[in-house]
Design goal:
Distance between the termini: 10 Å
Number of strands: 7
Order of helices and strands: EHHEEEEEE
Structural class: mainly beta
Strand content: over 45%
Radius of gyration: 12 Å
């Protein structure tokens, strides 16, 4: 798809939406859609409706707006997002 940006994020152990992003953007949850590939580490998403998704290396995700996330474990989580 034309015009789509691809980026790589390396999130440190202990990273979370609540402490590292929400205070800076003033939003309770993320308003973006994420199409992600988990390169390494583990991540958990909590949707505003209470649904949860946990993913690790090799997983591909479609995360809709209205979610919070945090890194699981002691390893950085590396995400490729488009």
């Amino acid at each position: 798809e034309r015009g789509r940006t691809v980026w790589r994020s390396e999130l440190s152990p202990g990273w979370s939406w609540d402490t590292d992003i929400a205070p800076h953007v003033g939003a309770r949850s993320c308003p973006l859609t994420h199409r992600e590939y988990v390169e390494s580490g583990r991540v958990r998403y909590l949707m505003d409706d209470g649904a949860q998704v946990e993913a690790g290396a090799g997983d591909v995700l479609l995360i809709k707006p209205g979610h919070r996330a945090w890194v699981l474990g002691d390893e950085p989580c590396v995400l490729i997002d488009w």
